Amino acid sequence: MTTDAVRRVQSGNPWEETLGSARAVAAGDRVLVAGTTAFRGEVLYGEGDPYEQAKVAFTNALEAIGEFGLGVESVIRTRLHLAHARDVDAAGRAHKELFDSVRPVTTLLVVEGFVDSRVLVSVELEAFRGAVKS
């Protein structure tokens, strides 16, 4: 694979600049999105609400793959990172609402915490774009 086959999308999140990362990276037939929370700009949506944070975070991730012309039907893997085990049902409900029709493989992890203590959920997804050329 040549570097021409790799494309990166920035969201404007300040952590991307701090870490030297991208919101989404397309490489070959895969588009990867990681480290996505319920922040939009400086505003954290759903503060204290794991369901709302999961829904907004996955919506942000879906918008990132939208930059490559993909939607929910292209999602093949998701990951949810939760700050608290008590939030499994709420975050799972948001996931089911968004992805029930496509049923990606999913990993759910409880982590020690996030850089911003108000964040309860961080998500990742992987999408498949088939034979689309970069």
TrEMBL record:
InterPro entries: RutC-like_sf, YjgF/YER057c/UK114. Pfam families: Ribonuc_L-PSP. SUPFAM superfamilies: YjgF-like (SSF55298). This is Enamine deaminase RidA (YjgF/YER057c/UK114 family). It comes from Streptomyces griseomycini.
